[in-house]
Design goal:
Number of helices of chain A: 8
Order of helices and strands of chain B: HHHHHHHHHHH
Oligomer: heterodimer
Structural class of chain A: alpha/beta
Number of helices of chain B: 11
Distance between the termini of chain B: 18 Å
Order of helices and strands of chain A: EEEHEEEHHHEHEHEEHHEE
Helix content of chain B: over 70%
Number of strands of chain A: 12
Helix content of chain A: 25-40%
Radius of gyration of chain B: 22 Å
Strand order of the largest sheet of chain A: 6-7-8-3-9-10
Largest sheet of chain B: none
Largest interface: A-B, 27 and 21 residues
Strand content of chain A: 25-35%
Radius of gyration of chain A: 21 Å
Chain lengths: ~280, ~250
């Protein structure tokens, strides 16, 4: 049986520009211990799906099963790492990691011990007593990962956790995350818009299409680990996925520009044979 | 520090010179020396200490009451939509009302006594605190709440461990604002009758045409305000700034 099972999930949002079908009839299974990456253009509903799995958003129709049991609200069995980390600035790194343990009702001593262990796991032992503003972006995301792992969840849900980091930091974190995943054997569902990142990390990459958000294709990544972002094989598979995604992006752009789209192509003022719109 | 000391010395010198020029009568414009003498006399016969004690006790009770109620009301307003839509607009309206305006009402309700003053102090500080706390809680990033939910935070802990600490900077601003509003309201209330507080002492000075006492009491009030700001709010604000990483070293 699949660890996570998304069955016929649909969800609409109502905004100032009308309603958006964020998810339409999405089916997806995640195996136990699998590293699954959801990739797609921005606004394609992949984050919405993650929130539904987390129990933070409820689907309009369909359901999410975890080990066969329906998910209806957030729980510590499904830890979430948010893009901005969502750590608490009034707490030190140590206290941030202790926070969910405190909610579990663990005693102070056990809390401290466990938090220390997980901070050690993400190589932040030295920065235990630092406040967030004293840490770099990459360190903060590592604290967030430690906090998510500290409750020993069944599933780790990661919503573009590295999107705001610089390239070097990201690369370091790919390595560390892959290592953590192999060490802990957690099931990971990872959302990103970065195709290379997806291929570098995942066992399976699921491509999402937008408006309506639905699963468009799935790619198995059977490349050997450790993988690196600039591996030729990573690049080759990423290229394949990118091409499929590009098609999708073009369609979205047309939809967003609406009537302007067709006008845009003919209305260029500047061209090799033109000066400010006049033929030479 | 040196610059500040020099400034105040210059100010006092200027004051002395103005007095020596004799433009105004000494009874209406007391010299620094006379004010110092009055300060010393009222300290020695303990009338100043007594008045300060009475006023401080009143403001502490009123302020703590206003602060507690204000935090609770502010949080509730920010969290309950129906309350915000109803009571929220009332609070904004009442906030524009100077606290002195509550005096006639308080006197009719409670009579010429401590409770009337307390009422004015609470009404003066309460709304300022409420509005600040309300703003603070409203501005807590929603992602904190979402994160808290995924970590299995209970309904009580959500308030005590997430919402309140997250809005601490705004709560502190409210506390500081509330303190100064409370002082103003207290003085307004105490001016009115034989209340034995600092405000009463000011009024006594006027009635006895003893300007030096008026100025002395004013100095004490300024000093108390500065002291509260430095010793309490300044320290708290600095600690919060440090934690949030807003301090400028």
């Amino acid at each position: 049986m699949a660890k996570l099972s998304v069955r016929a999930v649909s969800k609409k949002f109502y905004g100032s520009s009308g309603e958006v079908q964020a998810l339409l009839d999405v089916w997806l299974d995640v195996e136990d211990g699998e590293f699954l990456v959801l990739v797609g253009p921005s606004g394609c509903g992949k984050s919405t799906l993650l929130n539904v799995v987390a129990g933070l958003d409820l689907p309009d129709t369909g359901e999410v099963l975890e080990d066969g049991r329906p998910v209806s609200r957030p729980g510590r069995d499904r830890s979430v790492v948010f893009q901005e980390g969502a750590l608490f600035p009034w707490l030190t790194a140590q206290k941030n990691v202790e926070f969910p343990l405190k909610q579990m009702g663990l005693r102070a001593r056990e809390r401290a011990e466990r938090a220390r262990y997980y901070l050690h796991l993400v190589h932040l032992s030295r920065f235990r007593d630092s406040y967030l503003h004293e840490l770099s972006g990459g360190m903060r995301q590592r604290v967030a990962i430690a906090r998510a792992l500290a409750v020993d969840p069944e599933v780790l849900l990661m919503d573009e956790p590295f999107a705001a980091l610089d390239a070097q930091t990201r690369e370091d974190l790919y390595e560390q995350l892959a290592e953590l995943w192999q060490r802990t054997g957690k099931t990971i569902m990872f959302v990103t818009h970065n195709v290379r990142e997806a291929v570098c990390l995942g066992d399976r990459v699921v491509l999402f299409s937008a408006r309506p958000g639905r699963v468009r294709a799935a790619f198995d990544v059977s490349l050997a680990r450790p993988r690196f972002i600039d591996d030729v094989d990573v690049a080759r598979l990423a290229r394949q996925i990118s091409l499929a995604m590009k098609e999708d992006r073009r369609r979205i752009r047309e939809e967003e520009y609406d009537v302007d789209w067709h006008a845009a192509a003919g209305a260029l003022l500047h061209g090799v044979d033109r000066v400010l719109g006049d033929p030479l | 520090m040196l610059r500040r000391a020099l400034f105040f010395m210059a100010l006092i010198a200027f004051w002395e010179i103005l007095c020596r020029l004799g433009i105004w009568e000494p009874t209406l414009f007391p010299s620094p020396w006379r004010v110092a003498q009055t300060l010393w006399r009222t300290l020695a016969d303990r009338s100043l200490l007594l008045a300060t004690g009475v006023s401080l006790r009143r403001i502490l009770v009123g302020y703590l009451l206003a602060q507690t109620l204000g935090v609770v009301l502010g949080v509730l307003l920010a969290r309950l939509r129906w309350l915000e839509e109803t009571v929220g607009s009332l609070v904004l309206g009442l906030q524009t009302l100077p606290s002195v305006c509550w005096l006639p009402l308080a006197l009719l309700w409670f009579g010429l006594n401590d409770r009337a003053i307390l009422f004015v102090v609470v009404m003066g500080a309460l709304l300022a605190v409420t509005v600040s706390v309300h703003d603070g809680v409203k501005n807590v990033p929603p992602v904190y709440l979402r994160a808290a939910r995924t970590m299995g935070t209970g309904p009580v802990a959500l308030y005590t461990e997430v919402l309140l600490p997250a809005s601490l900077p705004a709560i502190l601003t409210g506390a500081k604002l509330g303190w100064s509003f409370a002082w103003r309201s207290l003085m307004a209330g105490e001016l009115l009758f034989v209340s034995l507080g600092l405000g009463h002492m000011l009024m006594m000075g006027r009635e006895l045409a003893d300007m030096s006492q008026v100025v002395a009491v004013m100095l004490v009030i300024i000093l108390l305000g500065l002291l509260a700001d430095r010793a309490i709010f300044g320290v708290l604000a600095a600690r919060v700034r440090e934690r949030w990483g807003l301090a400028h070293p």
